[in-house]
Amino acid sequence: MPDGVGIKNYIYANVFNDLDKSVTLLHKFKTETLKDFEIDDQIKFQHLRNYKETFFEKYYREKIHLSRLKYNASLKSNSSILSNYMPKKNKLSHKLFYSIVEISTRKNISKNHIHWLEKRYEKLLRKSRVYKEYYHFFKKHESSKLFCTHQRAIIAAPIFAAAKDAGIETITAIYSWDNLPKARLALRADKYIVWSPYMKNELKAYYPEIKNHQIKVFGTPQFEFHYDKSLLWTREKLAAYYHLDMNKKWLCFSGDDKTTSPFDQHYLKDIAKILSENELVNQWQILLRPVPVEGFDKYQEVIDQYPHLIKKTGAAWKLSSEWSDAYPKKEDLSVLSSLCEHADAVINVGSTMALDFGMHQKPAIYINYEAKENSYWSIKRIYKFQHFRSMENIEPVVWLDSPEQIIEILNNLDNYKQRTKKDMELWCEKIIPFNLRLESSQLIENELNI
Questions:
Q1: pLDDT score of 152 more than 70
Q2: pTM score of the predicted model
Q3: CATH superfamily, region 230-431
């Protein structure tokens, strides 16, 4: 479990509690953090070994990543896939390193060449200290299965290679709906857990070497809590928790990370300004839920300007300077579910929160105008990303094409809700079928028990 999101998706969903075998959780959390998880006493803990890539390990991994992005962009005729190549070049050494990677990846990319690169990478992994340590660990403990909650974790690559050579069955889950086009499948497993038949087809398209029988359509436990009525708060309790006005309607503004939407605070200010200049300010409050690991800092100036309109409804997360040690408290299951249930709509820049609200039959508004003209970032590029092609031929969300349009949308929200309701249901069903939203944790538990 390389990061805190796995706590929500697997620990809080009790995936490991009833297994017919002993469980050791390999993790990167601080010792004091583990006490907060309310984990079954039968689960043992072991801190993941430190893993520092060699120059050539990183070179081949990054070269594979860029090669697959180029291949995927050509395969899907979608150049926006290439924007997922975002190396950090904040040092001269980094600039030189990525220049080598980019120059060596200029020629036409073939699937055979990518497979050759991956074989070279696999050989290098087997020379690493981490590989050797975990190979002996698996042999010593006679482990039978290795499951990773996040297919993008770099440290999982040598560990999975060690497990394979030790004769252990390996399983991983695809973490998010947008991961596969991004070419960040850091490890190779015997089985891959995907959200839906749609995601299964994606995996087969990008990785045709993965056989049909290796792909398990089990959904993800990520959305199960929306259907657990015991977690749901009343509107009164939610209002008391965040000091909200019960007499007003609630518009949830869900934030994105600074890479996805660097001008989120500008969009929030636009909406707040329009509402404050209109009688709608007496009817609505904006409930601001930032992306959990970033908090309110970038929004604070706007919040201070409109304190009675914008209310902080932050995620109940334990934050840390290290992403891997940030995690949601169990209380956040109730917070998010109740927010989706009692807010009247959600607005954001292409966030999966649209799906969360859709599962509560609430409309989602996608912002679709430029925050700044002639900027390095464009809203138009966001909606060209491959995962939004899942919306082709349907209109599951309301599009906000200008700040002023928010007045008309909110004044006629019921009409927009009815207009998008059916397509939102179709979209949610495509991304993760209804039965898998309810049964995912049980299906995964059954697979791990085999």
A1: yes
A2: 0.94
A3: CDP-glycerol glycerophosphotransferase, C-terminal domain (3.40.50.12580)
